[in-house]
Design brief:
The protein has helices at residues 24-36, 46-49, 54-64, 74-77, 80-91, 109-112, 125-137, 140-159, 166-181, 191-222, 229-232, 242-269, 296-306, 322-331, 415-432, 454-461, 516-524, 532-535; strands at residues 15-18, 41-43, 67-72, 95-100, 117-118, 278-289, 311-318, 335-339, 351-358, 363-370, 388-394, 397-405, 440-445, 484-489, 495-503, 546-552. The chain is α/β, with parallel strands linked by helices and 557 residues long.
Length: 557
């Protein structure tokens, strides 16, 4: 039995009730009794049914329903709206249960071969209700996954977005296999659903081919005389060794494999980004981004990781931004970014703070800027890199993210004083509420040197919450140091608990421990001395991304 509904739409109603006004009394009684039994029922009222755009409200409710109850009577079989609802439910492969309000002939074929429940008065109402509840609740995991997949397929057909990722495809294939093995299971796979699964598979394949194609094109362009028409056609050219060609082809193949490894691991590690009520936020110090030039292979890996989140706060963006802009290009047109000014001075390190965000999911607000501390802690310490904040909106809910990179040092020193000033200034803005969102997320590299250190308690004493799921997690490949932090001040009731999260160790999937010889030549272009495990951080980073998922609360949570 398929038993993983972690990505199921939690707004789904158990039951959609289709009826006509002639059967309103029975429909309302059924709704009341079903809700008393713990079911959630969607029932269309008169002002929806007779509106010009009634399908805009009714069709999504049908797509989310796990069972469709069709009240059968002479009136409903003569109702154009009821018959359209029935036809669409059948097209979606929904579990349709006829509710007999009166015995009639001439019912559509959609109803004839189905289990029905008779509420015409011939049977005891309560006994028939118990049978109906059993019908609705049978095979819950199987029906729940069908509901989720069908809703996604219908939305994809409407706006051509939201294809399945690799993890969801595996679930879908398992569901279809189960249906094939048990022909009596209801609901059944539909053409819409099987087409959607197949197109999702094709999209994954095309995505991998596009990654390979980027490398082929890059080799053709960058290589000049060598990576030109002669090489593409296999014509040897004087002065170009076959070994060079072989190395470049191997790099392309390795990168495609590495992206695929990361994709598979991220799908397993992270919640479903397609859930429109869930926000995935990460903070990532990408070591000296643009201080030196990374190979395109590494930039592909960095972009792949970022693409699995909705918003990523970046620290240590520096230099001429060429690699930064390549990452943005690899993310695609749906991704936008915000960057602070360069932090001048020796200790400012010519760094920028930045946000990458998926504009298809979140919307930036007018709030953006560098945090001005009303009373600078300059006498005892200075941030050196001005905190950078921006506002975002998800489904109308607004929040502010403040990105920080606090100066490094072997001892925490005066960093707690700096963090206290920043945290208290932000909390005051939230509590004052003047043009500042009611939900705040402070995140970035606070250089917290230890789990029990003063920096973490300083953040909490300022009125911020450090989610237990990530509070003490180390982001360092070398030692247990929770340098990066994510601290929250959220409006009670806006988000559902608990806050989930984690740290993603990319070195388990790319630039692995066992690949020292593979990358030796590439790494030595940047640094010739030192151990591989340290120098590979110049390819990726010496920090792992730390992330949380926030779920917007709804009436069912």
């Amino acid at each position: 039995m398929v038993n993983d509904s972690s990505s199921i739409n939690k707004n789904a109603n158990n039951v959609f009730l289709s009826y006509t006004l002639a059967d309103k009394a029975l429909a309302e009684k059924l709704t009341r009794k079903l809700e008393e039994a713990g079911q959630s029922v969607w029932i269309d009222v008169e002002d929806i049914r007779y509106a010009d755009n009634w399908k805009d409200a009714v069709w999504p409710a049908l797509e989310r329903a796990k069972a469709v109850l069709f009240v059968t009577s002479a009136a409903s079989l003569a109702s154009r709206n009821c018959l359209e609802e029935l036809a669409y439910a059948a097209e979606l492969g929904k579990r349709i249960i006829p509710i007999i309000a009166e015995r009639v002939s001439g019912a559509p074929a959609t109803l004839k071969s189905r289990v029905r429940r008779d509420f015409s008065g011939a049977n005891d109402f309560n006994e028939e209700l118990l049978r109906l509840l059993k019908d609705i609740n049978s095979e819950p995991e199987y029906v729940e996954l069908h509901t989720h997949l069908t809703f996604r397929a219908a939305r994809w057909r409407a706006d051509k977005t939201g294809l399945l990722d690799s993890r969801e495809i595996r679930k879908a294939d398992s569901w279809v296999n189960e249906a094939d093995k048990q022909p009596d299971l209801n609901p059944r796979p539909t053409p819409l659903l099987t087409d959607f699964i197949q197109i999702s598979k094709q999209h994954i394949k095309r995505r991998r081919l596009r990654t390979a194609g980027v490398f082929v094109l890059l080799f053709l362009v960058i290589g000049g005389s060598y990576f030109g028409r002669e090489w593409w056609l296999g014509i040897p050219r004087a002065g170009i060794s076959p070994q060079t060609a072989s190395m470049q082809e191997e790099t392309a193949r390795r990168t495609v494999s590495g992206v695929d490894n990361l994709h598979t691991a991220l799908v397993e590690a992270l919640p479903d980004k397609e859930d429109r009520n869930q926000l995935l936020i990460a903070t990532w110090n990408i070591r000296q981004l643009d201080r030196h030039k990374r190979p395109l292979e590494a930039l592909h890996y960095i972009a792949e990781i970022i693409s699995f989140f909705d918003i990523v706060a970046i620290q240590e963006a520096m230099g001429d931004q060429s690699d930064y802009l390549k990452i943005k290009s690899l993310l695609g047109n749906g991704w936008h970014s915000l960057e602070s000014d360069i932090n001048e001075g020796r200790r400012g390190n010519q760094e920028r703070l930045a946000f990458f965000y998926d504009a298809r999911k979140v919307t930036p607000t007018a709030l953006v800027g560098e945090l001005n501390l009303p009373e600078s802690p300059i006498e005892t310490g200075n941030p050196y890199r001005s905190p950078y904040f921006a506002g975002f909106s998800l489904n109308g809910l607004q929040l502010a993210l403040c990105n920080v990179h606090i100066r490094w040092g072997r001892n925490e020193g005066d960093r707690p004083i700096i963090m206290k000033a920043i945290a208290e200034a932000l909390v005051r803005k939230v509590e004052r509420g003047r043009d500042f969102p009611p939900n705040l997320i402070l995140l970035g590299d606070v250089n917290a040197g230890s789990v029990g250190g003063e920096i973490l308690s300083t953040l909490e004493n300022a009125g911020l919450t450090l989610p237990p799921a990530v509070r003490d997690l180390s982001v360092s490949p070398f030692q247990e140091r929770p340098y990066a932090q994510i601290a929250l001040k959220l409006t009670e009731g806006d988000f559902a608990a608990p806050v989930n999260g984690g740290v993603f160790n990319f070195f388990q999937h790319v630039f692995k421990d066992s690949e020292e010889e593979v990358y030796r030549a590439e790494i030595e272009k940047i640094r010739r001395s030192g151990e591989y495990k340290h120098n590979r951080t110049l390819m990726m980073s010496d920090h792992f991304p730390k992330w949380i998922s926030l779920r917007i609360r709804n009436n069912n949570e």
